[in-house]
Protein: Fructose-1,6-bisphosphate aldolase
Amino acid sequence: MPLVPMRLLLDHAAENDYGLAAFNVNNMEQIQAIMEAAEETNSPVIVQASRGARKYSQDAYLKHLMLAAAELYPNIPIVMHQDHGNSPDTCQSAIDNGFTSVMMDGSLKEDGSTPADYDYNVKVTKEVTEAAHKQGVSVEGELGCLGSLETGGGEQEDGHGATEALSRDQLLTDPDEAERFVAETGVDALAVAIGTSHGAYKFTKKPTGEVLAMDRIEEIHKRLPNCHLVMHGSSSVPQELQDIINKYGGAMKQTYGVPVEEIQKGIKHGVRKVNVDTDNRMAITGAIRKVFAETPEKFDPRDYLKPAREAMKQVCIARMTAFGQAGWADKIKPVSIDKFTSFYAAV
Ligand SMILES: O=C(CO)COP(=O)(O)O
Ligand SMILES: O=C[C@H](O)COP(=O)(O)O
Ligand SMILES: [Zn+2]
Ligand SMILES: [Zn+2]
Structure:
């Protein structure tokens, strides 16, 4: 099966009331973990690579790893998505390297850290949508800045995110603006700011509605019932993964993520893509630490990469099941991006 445009999967998810996890990857083992989880649960797949991931793994490796996944799993529709593109150039270079979906994150300027104004965001996002749709490629935009409603701080744990203090207004997507933004840019999906942030340190206690504004999702969904919403920073940071890391020599401070039940509420209100990276990173790190601690005499990378891959696979299976994407892969008719241009030409 060819890699498919993201819109194909998001539309199917909306028609059937489920959400799709979008997992970040940087290497072969992470791609394998996702594909094994998808095969076991019959799940369609969104794989995404950040700019950092592309730099780390190099586009040619990534592209061919994704083509290998498509070849090995002909019954699973797979999207390859650029996470947090910082400019139209970044998005186009992703498309040139086989990505079937791109995020133009115009909530921040090209430096990936200065909050941008609404007009700049519309301009760059619209430019990307116009170009990408002609190539059959889907586009995600972002309105509002990710960051903590607990501290009022932006976040930069992954090198991408606002560095300055942000107001509550900047940290919450405005429903009026969202409506205008989607109409003006033509995006396929909209990432919203509701108090989630990237990385492990999202909340200092189990989040309430004060700091995790799920009601915003409801309001935005009411205004935009046909727009696919995206939740970033949606790792749940499970206690058991923190415990494994710390048991085997790690030093993570106690922290709280986005509870799976809250994500499920979001999925009832239009959330179709849920970004998860940190949970997989933690699963991998915990598994590797365990091997190192228990069998320090080992030095074959396979001895720790296999359990690492397995631990990530279990996280992927859990999220695919919880978000409702399990069971759907073989029910989706694949369409390649070159065939999808006519879909975009018609909308
Ligand atoms: O939003 C993300 C990637 O864009 C990942 O979020 P987490 O850090 O919560 O996994
Ligand atoms: O955007 C956040 C993702 O977790 C990717 O992180 P990264 O930029 O460190 O690859
Ligand atoms: Zn962003
Ligand atoms: Zn993100």
About this structure: The chain has one domain: 6-280+319-346. The radius of gyration is 19 Å. The chain has a mean pLDDT of 96.
